What does this fold into?
Amino acid sequence: MNDDGIKIGLETHIQLDTESKLFCGCSTDISDGPNSHTCETCLGMPGSKPRTNGKVIEYAIKASLALNCDINDMVRFSRKTYFYPDMSKNFQITQHEIPVGEDGELKTRLGNHEKKIRIKRLHIEEDPARIIHKGGDITSSDYTLIDYNRAGIPLIEIVTKPDFRTPEEARRFLQKLTKIMEYLGIYDPSSDLSIKSDANISIEGGERVEVKNITGTRGIEKALKYEITRQKNLKKRGRNIERETRAYNSSQEITRSMRQKESEAGYGYILEPDLTKLEVTEEKIEEIESDIPELPDKKRLRFMEEHGLKKEIAESLVTEKELADDFEKLVKKHDTVLTANWMTKELKKTLNYNDLTYKQADLESEWLSYIINLLEQNEITGRNAEKLVRRIVEKPEDPSVIVEKEDMLKADGSELEDIIMEVIDSNDEAVNDFKKGEEGALNFLVGQVMKKSGGKADPRESRRMIIKKIEK
Ligand SMILES: [Zn+2]
It folds into this structure.
């Protein structure tokens, strides 16, 4: 899909992980049921006055720095005309004239190809309330509910230049952006916080079309693919691609027309008179910068250099900050290759199967250390080690307790010998077949030993001992 002069730009809204809302002290916790965290400010009552949450400015500066933006020395807010029930004061407080950050970039990779995406600006704005259409969509629902818990939740909006040429590039960018925000500790993917994008898409000879309301990183690729195909089909039939705003419907995976695009003048921006301008000093910027942790790209390179890891393994470890941090704790005590392989294969496979992030699984690094140690000392079979990981991922528990309770360590010599004698004695036919040279019979006997031992027998060791016993 990289022909036809495709140009895509993204405007991505990220809900920030703060305790309270952007312009009032209401909690951002939305789990208490609709309209439980509201006040005169986030309900937009006449005479109410906003006050800026300093944490949001700090987070926006942090995000701007991580995206290599220039930071403006002043924070100012503006009112954007917004006449709709989810914004009860009829304007949205946003930043128009001066964003927090400008002229940044983010490098993404697609295969071996690295691409630089230019960031035009990063600014702060408030989220509108949540609208729920019951029994249909906006045109067909029986009635509509509004939940003002979301009104005033802080957002940062990140606007890129039209640098994407394919939907895949846009998806990679969003994945990387999300990971960075997570590393910065300003966004939590396991919470209810959302990432939503509006995309501007044009193909050669057509006007720019804006597609609104694309949720998450998975939705972006689908929405863009659909819209590009729609525009190409119009072009093929000799029709004009007109400038308009469309909405993405994720359940039907289509975009449909909402309205002709408004001009900037239609928003009637004015500077917000209820909020004073805030100065951003060099000292403040330096202080925030010193608080930025090592970001994924840098960490990956360091892991490759310092621990001698392959690129794919290092990449897999840095997908989550907590996973990378615990890896570094564990390699102080354990073999690097074994630890890295085990964490990126066994552990991640089990996490993925349970649809959990490492953080969500809530595992203690000492538990992992215990299992890795058993593997290093050859005290547990691969099969039981896998079982152990599954158990602690499904329900966090000290693995040494499980091992003790369920007697999961490898059978030692005499225990294994007893099991093997029992299997040989009760399987005459297989023993005779093996004596006649049938390899399959030996596999059967090993299988019986494994089964009887409950996974505690080491298959190679059992095989060796069975042969020895039978040939005696
Ligand atoms: Zn409030």
